[in-house]
Inverse folding.
């Protein structure tokens, strides 16, 4: 049992002879043992020593084991410590009561010491496995973060170099055409546009790394959707309407308006572009149907939310980017997910407690589902 020698077991019983019996057996197994003879003393030891596992007697005066377990479960810092109840009460309802309070196992008195050691070993193995899993998840997250940084760096380098080349090209033209004011003005406008695009990339990068929640405003959902659609249509010169189904109507929600309208606008333009590049034969709404559907939802962590689904019947999600669509700079303009748009959209929604999900539409096309809490806590 050498692999468990660093683990500390807390033995709690109001009978000193029972405490000493369990303590000696566990110490012979190579374990560190702390002891307590009352419920309050047990809580004090836990606060001071943070044991890996607790063997807890149920029937004690003043504060019984059930109450001790309840208090351990109520505190975030002690909730994960496994508790094995040790008691003379072997009735089924008593076991159910103990397990329902958060205990992981139940040993009846008189204690079979070898059985007790086997149960302790089982729980310590589970603790070890959980630690290994947590370590692997941490390392995986670090690897993903490193890969993300690499992808962002390469993507920004590529985009900025291209745009800077454009700027320098127009500057060279202005040098050659300095005596033709109309051409200089035209090229200056092009330089300004390219510089704005560079500033946009920098702004997107800032949005991607910021983890604090943006300030929110309470606004009508109907107004929010209307403004988002108008923003999308104005920004891209699209006159075709979006079919909207909003049974929640004027319900007020807490959002960061600028970010939300930008996200919904991106999802709408992705849906529009999924049909291919604009052309005379596909500019009509009937040729590029986009449906926006609102519905109530529940958050996984609890709380009311609303769901907005943007549905198109375009080319759908390319298999080449399906597993990477939320990574920056992994797709082309012909596919869903361009630049850092989807990365930023999901990051922003998750910061607000929501999420963004991309899925295939039955019959062809894509469904982009935006989920956001109705209320934001201060």
């Amino acid at each position: 049992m050498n692999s468990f020698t660093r683990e500390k077991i807390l033995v709690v019983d109001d009978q000193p002879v029972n405490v000493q019996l369990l303590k000696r057996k566990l110490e012979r197994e190579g374990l560190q043992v702390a002891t307590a003879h009352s419920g309050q003393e047990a809580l004090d030891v836990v606060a001071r020593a943070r044991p890996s596992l607790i063997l807890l007697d149920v029937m004690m005066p003043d504060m019984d084991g059930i109450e001790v377990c309840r208090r351990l479960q109520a505190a975030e810092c002690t909730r994960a410590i496994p508790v094995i109840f040790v008691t003379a009460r072997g009735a089924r309802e008593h076991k159910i009561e103990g397990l329902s309070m958060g205990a992981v196992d139940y040993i009846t008195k008189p204690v079979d010491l070898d059985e007790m050691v086997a149960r302790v070993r089982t729980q310590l193995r589970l603790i070890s496995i959980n630690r290994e899993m947590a370590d692997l998840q941490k390392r995986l997250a670090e690897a993903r973060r490193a890969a993300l940084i690499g992808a962002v760096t390469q993507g920004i380098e590529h985009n900025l170099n291209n745009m800077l080349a454009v700027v320098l090209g127009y500057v060279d033209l202005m040098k050659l055409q300095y005596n033709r004011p109309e051409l200089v003005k035209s090229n200056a406008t092009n330089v300004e546009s390219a510089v704005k695009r560079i500033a946009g990339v920098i702004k997107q990068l800032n949005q991607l790394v910021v983890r604090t929640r943006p300030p929110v405003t309470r606004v009508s959902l109907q107004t929010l959707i209307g403004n988002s659609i108008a923003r999308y249509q104005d920004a891209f010169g699209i006159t075709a309407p979006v079919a909207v189904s909003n049974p929640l109507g004027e319900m007020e929600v807490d959002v960061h308006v600028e970010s939300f309208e930008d996200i919904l606008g991106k999802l709408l333009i992705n849906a529009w572009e999924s049909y291919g590049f604009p052309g005379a034969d596909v500019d009509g709404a009937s040729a590029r149907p986009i449906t926006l559907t609102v519905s109530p939802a529940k958050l996984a962590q609890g709380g009311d939310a609303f769901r907005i689904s943007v549905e198109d019947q375009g080319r759908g999600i390319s298999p080449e980017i399906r597993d990477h669509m939320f990574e920056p700079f992994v797709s082309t303009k012909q596919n869903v997910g361009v630049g850092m748009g989807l990365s930023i959209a999901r990051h922003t929604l998750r910061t607000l407690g929501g999420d963004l999900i991309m899925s295939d539409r039955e019959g062809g096309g894509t469904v982009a589902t935006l989920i956001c809490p109705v209320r934001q806590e201060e």
